Amino acid sequence: MVNEMESKISAAEWEVMRVVWAQDKVTSKEIIDVLQQKKDWKPATTKTFIGRLVKKGILHTEEEGRKFLYSSAVNESDFINSTLDETFEHICNKDVGNAIVNLLSNATLSFKDIDKIEKVIEMKKKEAVEEIPCNCVPGQCRCNNCSSGH
Ligand SMILES: [Zn+2]
After folding, report:
1. Is the backbone of residue 24 left (phi > 0), alpha (psi -120 to 50) or beta?
2. What UniProt keywords apply to this chain's record, in alphabetical order (predicted)?
3. Which of 30, 69, 105, 114 is the most exposed place for a label (fewest CB within 10 A)?
């Protein structure tokens, strides 16, 4: 499981994690090489980000011979899902639909993806409600002002 602290990583740390997830076990040199190519980062910069991820408990280290091997302590798709879930927790329940429409509109999708989405849509149609209640704390949301004020 990914806890709330662990799921907060910077864009730079994402770059490091993508290398680790793609290769299971990597040396710092392998991470450095990929990110030097992609981002033109100096080895010291990449090492800083690796260090932060180790400190956050997202990267495991083990010693093999004379070098350190890094592996992910969190599953990639779990991590992505918890990051997305967390983002949706920051918005009003009433705005979630629009946010999903935007995501969907901007995504490049395969026929297979669309099949899966259609299946979910069919399911959602059966559970759909007339009006979504706002779940926000007063003062954090516009719709909350309306429903209590009028
Ligand atoms: Zn609200």
Report:
1. left
2. DNA-binding, Transcription, Transcription regulation
3. 105
